[in-house]
Design brief:
The chain is mostly helical. The protein has 9 helices and 2 strands; from the N terminus they run ααββααααααα. The chain is 69% helix and 2% strand.
Length: 198
Amino acid sequence: MTSSTTMAAFSGSANGQLSFARQVLLALGGSLLIALSAKIQVPFQPVPMTMQTLVVMCLGLAYGRNLAFATVALYLLQGAAGLPVFADTPAKGIGLAYMFGSTGGYLVGFLAAATLCGWLAERGWDRRIHTTAAALLAGTSLIYLPGLVWLASLHGWDKPILAWGLWPFLPGELTKIAIGACLMPAVWSGFRWLQARR
């Protein structure tokens, strides 16, 4: 597939290239957005839903693989340094102690998911609802796979890992995929409309 301009590059410069300063600002802003999304819980069944996985993947779609990787890596470094950027911090610990707990695998998955979504966006997958949904589904899989493996390694492979770490969250994740699949193409349509009006 051919390479496409990412949303950040399209909206941020005339030639489709982002300056280093703008990339730094986007990474800082993105890491803050991920942290904020971890703190907001939306009432949902069977468990409350945060918007964190959606934000991580949509940043990947908007930024492209390299900037998305840098943004999520910055977020993880902030958490490792002891900043209360993760869900349930500082109540359930901070820093590396939190990162090596039950959610550690999911945090690694954030990095993989954002990078994959960014790579797919560079190939135009964020322009249409069905391809955006496919990208978000792939990204969600990359979040939960290392998360579940990490849970099993901590608590034992004989434990009901899927019941703990996947099934309760699946309705929320599917809802977020639907939201993102509608949102990203709509933003692209808005950009094109604005460009046509110039």
